[in-house]
Amino acid sequence: MPIRILLVDDHAVVRQGLKMFLSLDSDLQVVGEAENGEDAIRLTRALHPDVVLMDLLMPVMDGSTATALIRREFPETEVIALTSVLEDEAIMKAMRAGATGYLLKDTQAEELRRAIKAAAAGQVQLSPQVAARLLREVRIPESPEKLTSRETDVLRLLALGRANKEIARELDIGEKTVKTHVSAILHKLGVPSRTQAALYAIRIGLVSIEEEKSRGCSV
User: Fold this and answer.
1) Domain co-membership, 44 together with 143
2) CB of 138 within 8 A of CB of 199?
3) 158 with 195: CB under 8 angstroms?
4) Same structural domain, 189 and 99
5) Helix (H, G, I), strand (E, B) or coil at 191
6) Structural domain tally of the chain?
7) What pTM value is reported for the model?
8) What is the DSSP letter of 98?
9) 127-183 confidence digits (pLDDT tens)
């Protein structure tokens, strides 16, 4: 089954351009378009996309607000911020809302396709520079509910950038079981996304930024 994508941007020409080059990949399917945050929430409820490409600066409702509401109601739907704004405040607001990734609109098409596939697979991608910046700014719970040993194993592999299938194979469990563990981890840590769970793993020393660097992944 192709990855189902919802495009959210207040400029029709941007949506048309995204739809055109994403349609060249048979693994991806654009199932809907929205021009503001309110429409994004409505269409997410109707279409149940796997990934939402979310602009941040829009009328009616901004992208970060919409991201937070979508992630709260549909935790299985991943949101990637796709914007022309590269500012610390915008990045932090999007990540706190639960965005999995943060990409600029001048991102190359192939990089965007990789990011969509990674998000749909449950893969966290953080460059060391971005991880270091987010660790300074994103609030992580000081006393979260204790994770089980298996949940800790899943969290470490998640933070190392493993996709759900890879975690399942490495731990010899089913992919659905991995998703169940990830949901439990997010609930216990009180965070809205895998990205923030990965940051927690770095903060407590479960994964080091040097390990992140060795993966060679980028947001």
Assistant:
1) no
2) yes
3) no
4) no
5) coil
6) 2
7) 0.83
8) T
9) 666 677 777 776 767 677 899 999 999 999 999 989 999 999 999 999 999 999 999
